[in-house]
Structure formats: structure tokens, C-alpha cells
Hints:
Blueprint: H1 3-26, E1 43-44, E2 52-58, E3 64-67, E4 84-89, E5 92-97, E6 102-112, E7 121-125, E8 136-141, E9 158-161, E10 166-174, E11 179-188, E12 193-202, E13 208-219, E14 233-238, E15 241-244, E16 255-257, E17 261-267, E18 271-277, E19 284-290, E20 293-299, E21 303-305, E22 310-321, H2 324-330, H3 344-361, H4 364-395, H5 397-406, H6 411-424, H7 434-452, H8 476-491, H9 498-515, H10 520-544
Parallel strand pairs: 1-8, 4-9
Antiparallel strand pairs: 2-3, 2-10, 4-5, 5-6, 6-7, 8-13, 10-11, 11-12, 12-22, 13-20, 13-21, 14-15, 14-17, 16-19, 17-18, 18-22, 19-20
Helix pairs in contact: 1-9, 3-4, 3-7, 4-10, 5-6, 8-9, 8-10
Amino acid sequence: MNSAENKNLVLAMVLMLAVWLGFSIFFPPQKEQQPEIVQTTPVAVSQAKEETVVIDKVAEAETSSVVGEAPASVAVQTSAPAREITVETDKYQAVFTTDGARLISFKLKEYMATADADSAPVQMYEAGPLRYSTFRTTGAEGFGLSEGALFETAATSVVNVNGQERLEILFKHVAANGMQYVKSFKVRGDKYVIDMDFVLSNLSQTPLRGTVNLAMVQRWDDSMEGDMYSFSGPATLVKDEIDQVDVDDLSDGSVSYGQDMTWTSFQTKYFLSVVVPGAKSVERIQIQRKGDAVENVIETPYFTLQPNEEKTLDYMAFIGPKEASQLIEAGHQLDRIVQFGFFNLLAQPLFTVLTFFYGFFKNYGVAIILLTVLIKIIFWPLTHKSYSSMKSMQKLQPEMAKLRDKFKNDKERLNKEMMQLYKTHSVNPLGGCLPMIVQIPVFFALYKVLLESIALRHAPFAFWLTDLSAKDPYYITPILMGASMFVQQKMTPTTADPMQAKIFMMMPIVFTFMFLNFPSGLVIYWLVNNLLTILQQYFIHRKAT
Length: 545
């Protein structure tokens, strides 16, 4: 076997190993999808059992109506049990409680936990111990804000917020030391953003000094771990770089960031909770693990409030899907969260085109097929040239056999004569492999899009394919893909070397087993690509004859 053929053989083996190892190492098999439960926690709490709450519903025209507002400077003594206020928006159902003025449940209406028809919505937070609640605020030293405070509200139990309507919920508490705490949540019917203001007013006759912490507390267990390319855990934007923290590493201690951070979050593959503190509302962020909980704690600097002085701490939260348009609109570089890793440069335009096609047909399976056709058109000249090169190589087999026989004892001369033969007939011995080499990065990039994009989560195609981001449950498409690859190999000009021929004939089998656990959307891409290649080879062969 001469040098050129050795290169072909090695290249073929490398291609097979590259795809096989690339996906087994960089894209390990996906875990069986579990119902999405993301429980994250930030809360406000006070020391004494005195409280006041206000609800303020604001229309887009900036008109407002106040329900049950208590006098601003009067502490309302109460022994009433905690009660819940349910906020129904177009996007989610949120449940607040007067126990700590915290969010205890948050369900996403547009996203189901599984692809089953009777599936429950994704639950970002669920009711549980106080330390798992959301928007938890505590105060140190003179502020004395604890987690056990009971707040009060005169608001109705259920409030609906539709479209561009806005709702403001106010929780007020006056502690025994004369410190008044007012926590305001502002929501909008069509957004996942929640704006929170925390106003501290010193109603006493003496200065009070302390600090305030706002915590996101996430319940954590091993089932929530992501894989190498599907991160789950706390992440913080620091100095224009996203720093992701492995929860296992937190057993050795906490991770801290200074004022150079922009936001801190807790993420899973498709969903996140993120808090953006105001410039004067943060001195540092500490991420720590306490038992089965992970805490992102936003700490303010120490400050002093003189009598009758007040201070406002402001935060913006986003609780919802990793959906690019929503994150872009929310600002603060939240769209940086939606990244496709090493293949981002290719994945982003692929996703843009995919979304464009989806806009017309409202089916991502159809969009994938159209994207495949577009990619095939782009690569058509290269594929055509490659096929022509392989046909030319096939025609040269008799002359190559003569050269091997003539120079069988002089490999250096044989290689030289072979190269001259290729040059004379304008043949590239590696040309047949070029289409596959070029398509591998596109293949990996599309894999990332199908695996990571929230738009494709539970996206149906047709018949039994109800989730294009999951594997084919009956393995029909991988088998069809393998069969189409076998037909494609049969139509490809054969090589004179039996070893190379065996390797190429093994590729359909290898690829079929590889694709068994791949997202069905990716299998559809490769299957359609093979069918188009078969069609292309048929017309090229027909034209040649």
C-alpha cells in the first residue's frame, strides 16, 4: 500500500474515531430526563411580629389603585397565621406568603416538566422549609432582621395580571427597635422579570447600623447535576466573564466575588433564576453550600441610618427559561447565559436560521429538514468535486496497480510516481473525505443547538417523535439513517484497497450505534443529509454516463 493510500486509510480511521470519541467524551449520553424542578430562594424576614403589606396594581397607562394599604408609619400588631397571595400572570403562577414576605412557589405555565400530555408545569420553586424560600432577606447587628418575621397584607388571595398590566406587592414590617422594613415586588403580566425594592426606614430616636443580605437558596441533590456540556449550578458574571461553580467544590468552602460582579444565578440546562443587584446594594457575593442547600448570598456594605432616615436597596430578578429574546430584553448581559460553548460561532447562525424556518412552519422538525437542505446546497459544489475526484481515482486504479507492481521494492520511487500520476490527472487522493471533514463542525454545532436550546425542548415533529431534543424512543430514525448511509456507501466509487473498503463499509454500523441515543432532531438532520447525498450521487452518475 503506497503513502497516499495509507493516508486515506489513516484518515478514514481517524474520522471514525474522531466522531465516536468526540461524542463519547465531549457529548456523553444524556441522562433520562427528569421533571424539571428548580428551587431557588431569596426572602425578606424581620425580628418582631409586626407587619404591614400593600398591593398596588398598575395599568400600562401608569394609573394605579391601592388595595388594603396600611398607614405608613404604624406597626400593625397581629397574631394571625400566615396566608398566601397567588399571582397569576400570562407566564407563570407565583405564590407569596406573609411568613417572611417571601416567594414560596413559582410555576412556568408555558413549560411542562415532561413531554407527557398530562404533565405538570415546570416548578422553579416549591413550598418547603423557610430556608428554601425565595427572596430571603436577613439583617445583621442593629438591623436585627430575622427569618421568623410574620408580615401582614390586606390583599386578596388571588390576583390576576394580564398582558402589559403591572402589579406591585408591598410587604411592611416595623420591628421592636423602630426599624421599618418595606419590601416591594413589581411584576408584569407578560414578562419573567421581577423588580424588588427593599426600603429600610429608621423610625426610632437613635441611629441604627447594620447590613442586609439577600439570598437565593437552591435545594441540591445529585439528580440535579448536569453533564460536561449541560451545566447546572451557581454562575456569576464577573468582569465580563461568566464564572460557573461546581457544587461539589463548595464542600471545601465558599466562593466570594466583589463589587465587580453584574449578576449571580442558579442555572439548569433550560432554566435559571438570576438576581441583578443595584450598584449600591452589593459589596460582595458569597456562594456556599449548607447541607442539601446551595446559597447565593448578596451582601450589602455596612451602613448607618439616622433617625427618620431611609435607604432603598434595589434588585432585579429573572425567573424563567433560557430564552434569548426574553434575556436580551431584560438587559444586564443576561443573554450571555445562552451560549453553545466551543461551537458557538457556528451554532448561533444555525439557530438563527432554524428559528427563521420555524417562524413559517411552526414545526422544528420541518425547520431542521429545511436547514439540512440549505446546508446541502451550500456544500453542493464541494460534494460534487469530491465525488468527481473519487470517480477519477477509480479510473486510475489500473495504472496505480501497474505502478505498485513495477516499484514494489522501491517505496520512495512508488510514492513519487503516484504523486505524479495524481498531478497529471488533476486528482486529489484525499478529496473524497473533504465533505465529511467539513461537515463535522457543523454536525457538532447543530448537536449543541438541539441539546441546549430551550426552543427545541419537548418540540414535536410528527408521529412518534414528540421531543426533538430527546432520542428516538423506538430507534426507527437511527436505523433508517444507518440504512441510508449503507446505500450511500454502495453508490460511492470503491477503492482498490480491501482494507479501506472494509473500514468504509463499517461506518454505517458504527454511526447507527452512535446515533441510537442522540437527539432525534440530529438524527433527522443526518438522515435527510444522507438522502440528499444519495440523490446528488444519482444525478452525478447519470450525467457521467
